[in-house]
Design goal:
The protein is of the alpha/beta class and about 200 residues long. The protein has one domain: Rossmann fold (3-Layer(aba) Sandwich). The chain contains 5 helices and 7 strands, in the order αββαββαβααββ. Strands 3-2-1-4-5-7-6 form a 7-stranded mixed sheet. Helix 1 runs parallel beside helix 2. The longest helix is centred in the N-terminal third of the chain and has 28 residues. The radius of gyration is 16 Å and the shape is globular.
Length: about 200
Amino acid sequence: MSLRFTYSCFAPLYDTLVERATRSLRQDSLAHLPASPGRVLLAGLGTGLDAPWLPPQHEYVGLDLTRAMLQKALPRLVAHRFTPLQGDVHALPFADASFDHAVLHLILAVVPRPEACLQEAARVLKPGGRLLILDKFLRPGQKAPLRRLLTPVSGRLATRLDVVFEEVLARTPGLELEEDQPALAGGWFRRIRLRKSDQLR
């Protein structure tokens, strides 16, 4: 069973299950988008739950794997300069350094290859640009046997439970950690801000 299929089926229920629990987390994360206008990638857009807190001065490109999710997101983003695109975060259809900033909310722990997702986001980001991340991560050395045991099933249906963010970041050179805050569920969910080094061209 593919993520494309399960999230297409999941789309009608997604807001009911996720919106309230993540509302304030999204707001806190998106408050770090800068005041100066820029081009922002929303990778793994979902149903557009970030929309109420997206500053209006930016131009947004929202990418999601499923048409069902994009269709739910569109009405929420009519007030923004927004381009929807169906695609895969493992292989973004953009040139290098195409975006000023990128938002990865609840996507790194969903995809089969989080390292590829983060590497692609870093590739399309301009030097000095920021990545805003919100997701569930294990800490280095955290055993969490139940989460690891469930991941082969949960990863096929909806989300992985065993992603160690530090391991993912270590495989993506040129990103500097600016903030890492516990956000929900005793710190299982974390709000992270990265910056792409100015030295990368």
